[in-house]
Amino acid sequence: MGLDYVEVIMEIEDLFQIEIDDEACAPIRTVGDLYEVVLEKLDQQREAAQATGGCPTIPPFLNIRNAIVSLAPVERKNVRPSSRLEDLLPENQRILLWRELQQRLQLPLPPLVLPDSLRTGLLTVSLVVFLTATVLLIAAGGSNGFALAVSLMVIVTCLLYLGTRPLTTTFPSGCTTVADIVRRVRPPYHPSNRLTPIPTDRNQIWQLVVQTVAETLNEPASNIEPQTRFYEDLHCG
């Protein structure tokens, strides 16, 4: 399967608002196989909606709240979706707690960053060092001075990066509240991410699959049956 096949999968994902991962793609050989995968993904969305009573954020929120309460000195009642993470995770333990929270949730959360004031100060220091070193080294070494100044700047930057890692205690933009973590945990195939209702008419779903395949591959829809093979019959290479 080649780029044409990838294009078909992407069009199907956009149309039905589902995600077809590599594992689901592997056994697809015919249009019928693709249709069955679409049905399976839509069923997953429907089951997820039923399991949570239509509210997809409750299970991940409860899981996150339990993890925070077990790690940090904070009462359960104080962990709300709007709670700021900086109020829940003490600054003197934040780096360790943030790492352990990621392990508990099995979620790659964004790394902590330096406070804005410290980041600005370090940038200023770096520029001053670079400019000063450039002037002095050019005056002393001529044309080689600039190259030496750049080398010095690289070394200073690396040292500052390593030396300031223990000071990275600020939560990055977009991940400052409990609700922000909940949004990262929610599975991509959940119905809460849909813009339209989950389709249920299987005949209509099949017709949409056929239409999408036909238009994407520039093939007559009348030639497409469930047993139609992407590679051999549709020359999807």
Helix/strand layout:
Blueprint: H1 3-16, H2 22-25, H3 31-51, H4 58-71, H5 85-88, H6 94-105, H7 116-141, H8 143-164, H9 178-185, H10 202-217
Distance between the terminal alpha carbons, to the nearest Å?
A: 5 Å
Q: Specify the overall morphology.
A: flat
From the helix content, strand content and strand pairing, which structural class follows? mainly alpha
Secondary structure tally, helices = 10
Question: How large, in whole angstroms, is the Cα Rg?
Answer: 27 Å
Helix content: 55-70%
Low-confidence stretches: none
**What profile does the largest beta sheet have?**
none
SSE pattern, N- to C-terminal: HHHHHHHHHH
- β content, as a range? under 5%
Question: How many E strands?
Answer: 0
Output mean pLDDT: 83
Kindly give the count of domains.
Answer: 3
Give a verbal description of the structure.
This protein has 237 residues and is mainly alpha-helical. The chain folds into 3 domains: 3-54 and 194-223; 58-110 and 173-185, Non-ribosomal Peptide Synthetase Peptidyl Carrier Protein, Chain A, CATH 1.10.1200; 116-167. The chain is 59% helix and 0% strand. It is built from 10 helices and no strands. It has helices at 3-16, 22-25, 31-51, 58-71, 85-88, 94-105, 116-141, 143-164, 178-185, 202-217. Helix 3 crosses helix 10 (202-217) and helix 7 (116-141) packs antiparallel against helix 8 (143-164). The protein is flat. It starts with a helix and ends in a 20-residue tail after the last helix. The model has no long low-confidence stretch (mean pLDDT 83).
